[in-house]
């Protein structure tokens, strides 16, 4: 029975850490969203194996003008890229544009819009007009920020529900009334139950 209050404490601590984590994700995503209207942040990962022929794999994530752009590619060729494998973060001025994506994500006729794009959500997917060519995607930041805020709202709602049940002396798991229950265990679901608050001494 002595470990049951510790279980409740760990659960409460996990809920607080979850709220802090998801709040940090929302704040960070919102900051990158706002920053994308002034500068272009680009993160690129390149992996080169073998050779020759060389097998090159890579991806780019780029934040520009309120949208997140991605590109993935894999190819095998006789030449090796001049840059070594690894992760690179680069920042470009708004007026210059990205060296690969350009400015405003202009798409040449060589890129074909894929039929499974969710354009009603602002998501667009393209593939290079070649067999096994690279894939590009555009995802609006407002959608990413909204989706990342859903877990935060869920954890906050669970926390409010737990506090309300604690105030009314109910089980955190099933809301069973634990009034006068001193066993430390919920008789309904078997979960840990907080010890009842000590009663105030009668007035002298």
Keywords:
single chain, 204 residues, alpha+beta, seven-stranded antiparallel β-sheet, 2 helices, 29% helix, elongated
Provide a descriptive summary of the structure in words.
The chain is α+β, with helices and mostly antiparallel strands. It has a domain of 108 residues. Helix content is 29%, strand content 27%. Strands 4-1-2-3-7-6-5 form a seven-stranded antiparallel beta sheet. β2 and β3 form a beta hairpin. α1 packs antiparallel against α2. The chain is elongated. 11% of the residues are buried. The model has no long low-confidence stretch (mean pLDDT 75).
Summarize the structure.
This protein is an alpha+beta fold and 204 residues long.
Strand order of the largest sheet: 4-1-2-3-7-6-5
Mean pLDDT figure = 75
Biggest beta-sheet profile:
7 strands, antiparallel
In total, the number of strands is: 7
Along the chain, the helix and strand elements come as HEEEEEEEH
Percent in helix: 25-40%
Query: Spans with pLDDT under 50 lasting ≥5 residues?
Result: none
The radius of gyration computed from the alpha-carbon positions, rounded to a whole number of angstroms, is 27 Å
Q: Give the overall shape.
A: elongated
**Amount of beta strand:** 25-35%
Main structural class: alpha+beta
Helices, by number, come to: 2
- Straight-line N-to-C gap: 34 Å
Task: Spell out the blueprint of helices and strands.
Layout: H1 4-35, E1 39-50, E2 54-64, E3 67-77, E4 86-93, E5 111-113, E6 124-128, E7 135-140, H2 141-167
Antiparallel strand pairs: 1-2, 1-4, 2-3, 3-7, 5-6, 6-7
Helix pairs in contact: 1-2
């Amino acid at each position: 029975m002595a470990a049951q209050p510790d279980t409740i404490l760990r659960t409460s601590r996990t809920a607080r850490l979850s709220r802090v984590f998801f709040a940090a994700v929302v704040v960070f995503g919102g900051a990158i969203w706002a920053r994308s209207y002034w500068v272009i942040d680009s993160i690129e990962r390149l992996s080169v194996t073998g050779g020759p022929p060389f097998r090159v794999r890579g991806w780019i994530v780029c934040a520009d003008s309120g949208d997140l752009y991605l590109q993935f590619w894999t190819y095998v060729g006789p030449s090796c890229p001049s840059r070594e494998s690894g992760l690179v973060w680069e920042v470009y001025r708004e007026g210059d544009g990205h060296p690969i994506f350009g400015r405003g994500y202009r798409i040449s006729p060589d890129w074909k819009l894929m039929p499974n794009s969710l354009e009603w959500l602002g998501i667009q997917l393209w593939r290079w007009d070649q067999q096994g060519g690279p894939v590009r995607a555009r995802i609006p930041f407002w959608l990413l920020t909204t989706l990342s805020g859903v877990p935060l709202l869920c954890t906050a709602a669970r926390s409010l529900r737990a506090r309300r049940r604690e105030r009314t002396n109910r089980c955190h798991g099933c809301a069973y009334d634990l009034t006068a229950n001193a066993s430390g265990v919920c008789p309904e679901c078997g979960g840990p139950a907080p010890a009842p608050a000590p009663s105030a001494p009668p007035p002298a």
